[in-house]
Design a protein that fits this description.
By secondary structure, the chain is mostly helical. It is built from six helices and no strands. The two termini are 16 Å apart.
Length: 97
């Protein structure tokens, strides 16, 4: 499976568990709902596929600094926000099969 196919699969899983479309996740909006889903997708893709921040930026049409911020936010929300953590854990469980 190509990297692009992996990314699409991961985005589909995130969209399912965060109850939003892939298009919504990729939108340039700062609503909390979108930020959280996008951060989860960034973390999942980076941790799973080991993409660099610049390459993640290409996926999300953002710069690398935005991707670093999203990744760091995901880590913070995992430790502080139960609903984010539960959704993220469910995405990981689906990924494992």
């Amino acid at each position: 499976m190509s990297t692009r196919e992996h990314v699409n699969r991961l985005l589909k899983l995130v969209s399912k568990h965060f109850k939003m479309s892939k298009t919504e996740i990729l939108e340039h909006t700062r609503s909390q709902r979108n930020l959280r889903a996008r951060a989860a997708a960034v973390k999942l893709i980076r941790d799973t596929l080991k993409l660099s921040y610049p390459k993640l930026g290409l996926v999300f049409n953002q710069n690398h600094a935005t991707m670093i911020n999203a990744y760091n936010n995901a880590n913070m929300w995992l430790s502080e926000d139960r609903s984010f953590r539960d959704a993220y854990i469910n995405v990981e469980a689906d990924l494992r099969g």
